[in-house]
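Internal tracking record. Fields below are filled automatically when a chain is submitted to the structure queue. Please do not edit lines marked as system-generated. If the sequence contains nonstandard residues, flag them in the REMARKS field before resubmitting.
Queue: standard
Priority: normal
Entity type: single polypeptide chain
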Amino acid sequence: MAIKNRLIFLIMAVILIPFVFAEIKIEPIEIENYNLGDTINVKTTIKETDSLTGMLKHTINCGDYALTYAVTPLILEYDVEKDVETSVLLIGQMDGGCEIVAGFESLDGLFTEEERSNILTVSSELDVEILMDKVEFLPQENIVVGGTVKTKSGENVDGVQMTVNFQNKDYIVDVDDGKIATKIEVLASMNSGTHNMFFIVEDKNGNRKEFTKEITIVAVPSRIRLELAKKDVDPLETLAITPYVHDQSDTPIPDVVKIEIIDAKRRKVVDEEVSSNVAYNFVVEPASVPGEYIVKISKDRLKKEENFIVNEVEDIDVQLEGNIVVIKNIGNVVYKDSTTIILENEDNKYILNKKLNLKPGEILEIDLSKEVKEDVYDITIPTSKDGSKVIEDTKISDNRGVIKKVGQGIGGITGFSTAAKTKGSGKGYLAFIAIIIIVVVIVGYFWKGSGGGDVQKGEKVDFGAVEQGKSESVSEFKDN
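SYSTEM-GENERATED OUTPUT FOLLOWS
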């Protein structure tokens, strides 16, 4: 019963309390983007369902920052609409997304009501557009710069200056009713490549814009130079030749140049296009003419030349290939000298001399099997003009002619026109005498028997052989 009485009391209390509320409307703010220093105008309408006295507060909220910028006392009458117009100046802390809050509070504090506006954007950045008709410029060419400076709401900015930093210098440009126009000359010595132009503009309210515009300065070849790794080279060596092209700032730049090399006989041995800043490796051929060479490089009207010397080299290369000694002139001049080949074993020693007259690159072959009898020898051959080496236990065949065999047999004389001496006991000397007598008898016999000394076709002539002690033959080659 007690609970029922309490419910009835509460219901009666609610019925007896007057039902009061206010209708607040904020007219939509059409401009949604603002800069610092701009003013936001707000129109608020309030209508109360009963007579009421209180305060209408307008507050701007920007993130964590809030400022009540207007407080308006109001005496509201039943069902009467009132308009309240306010404005707020945007200052430094007001940045980003903002909204206006209109709130009414009765003087007794028992009644409150509020309304929020649409979201607005407040920025400290200006809208700047820079226009150029191109992005590549030559030294001493004018860069024509145009453009506009506006607020976020689209209003032209006037009475400010823009700073353009370029070529380590600040250029000041006036902004007239939102427009900019200027010319900046590229320095004659400006280095080529990509460069940045820095633009800065700021108004009195702290709104600013900084940005970069990229341009390219065209390289103009202004100087070329030539570097040689050395001033004299031998055949088979490589000479590094590096051409350089410098731009208007005297900075080396990548480019293509023509290179020519003229030899000592004024013949062009190289005519090519090569990259600058990269070494061109010129290989000196074995038979290159000795003397002064000229290196020329050119790029358009630019030319440069340097000299180097190809040294005179007189040398040979000697190789033993089977029974053949191969002698090659590996120098770059005619080789006029003699060379010696020694064949030696326990019984015999042959010293073969040859006068050489070889042009550069020319090859001479000597067949040892046509110079000495068949045997195994240790052979000493030259390896160069001044060097030699021994090739041991080399089997040499015997391809000598009959006359050469007889000649060498009777006097140790080979086909090289030699003088010979015998090493060992006096038996060797007697043996030589015996051989001579035998040869004379045989020749006389066939001469007499033939009636004229001619050997008849089909007859066999056997000169025989006489063993000797070790002999040493010194021979001079004759071309067969």
